[in-house]
Write a structure and sequence with these properties.
This protein has 228 residues and is of the alpha/beta class. The protein has helices at residues 10-22, 33-40, 59-68, 84-93, 105-121, 155-166, 174-181, 192-205, and strands at residues 2-6, 26-30, 47-51, 75-79, 97-100, 129-132, 135-138, 143-146, 149-151, 172-173, 213-216, 220-223.
């Protein structure tokens, strides 16, 4: 899962980024509301964690702007302002959940998981089980099978496969793959994506006559079912 943390307190942001990263998530972090709004609008995040009291553009205004623009990414708001009226105000602004400070990190994880389960129940595009032909991916567990054969993938390989499966039959650019598995602080070399795709393709195709990942020269990669 890719998460954006919008938090101006450096210690709090570092705490969240470290904990979420250690839990297997890809995390980006910004310290003001305007930057948070711009990044959230890219539409690449599975969830947002937003502090209410932000410099420049406060958290409530940020969420209102997102909802007005039609972006439905789940938002967990964190705030020391946590009486009943303030929580209601946050929910009315468009937040999906509101957690009072101080909080336990395990509760942050539980709230995020709850938000994604809720969105899946509403039929959003955050489905965590993907199928293309005989290829099946359980995203949270990173369990992959092709034709019933289990395939062991590393964390970033699973993230790249998820991106390809969500856009099966389409060209997925290297930039799209990069943003799906690395945070913005990563400085990629020229062939990091190609190396990971090479390993992923080898694992997926072992024992099969057809390759599911195709190279699109000058553009990127695409994934297809066995009969495509």
């Amino acid at each position: 899962m890719r998460i954006l943390v919008v938090e101006d307190d450096a210690r709090t942001a570092a705490y969240l980024v470290r904990g979420l990263g250690e839990s297997g998530h890809i995390v980006d972090s910004v310290e003001n509301g305007h930057s948070g709004l711009a990044m959230a609008r890219e539409g690449i995040y599975d969830a947002l964690i937003v502090d209410r009291q932000l410099p420049g553009l406060d958290g409530l205004s940020l969420v209102r702007e997102l909802r007005a623009g039609g972006l439905l990414t789940p938002v967990l708001m964190l705030s020391a302002l946590a009486n009943t009226a303030q929580r209601v105000e946050g929910l009315q602004a468009g937040c999906d959940d509101y957690l009072a400070k101080p909080y336990a990190f395990v509760e942050v994880l539980a709230r995020l998981d709850g938000l994604l389960r809720m969105r899946r129940g509403q039929g959003s595009d955050t489905s965590r089980t993907l199928r293309v032909g005989e290829l099946l991916l359980d995203c949270p567990a990173r369990l992959v099978t092709r034709g019933g054969r289990a395939i062991q993938l590393q964390h970033r390989e699973a993230l790249l496969l998820e991106k390809l499966m969500r856009h099966s039959g389409e060209v997925v650019t290297r930039d799209m793959l990069l943003e799906s598995a690395w945070d913005y602080s990563f400085d990629p070399n020229d062939n990091v994506i190609d190396k990971h795709i090479h390993r992923l393709r080898r694992k997926l195709d072992e024992g099969f006559a057809t390759s599911m990942i195709r190279t699109v020269p000058g553009a990127g990669y695409s994934l297809h079912g066995e009969d495509a």
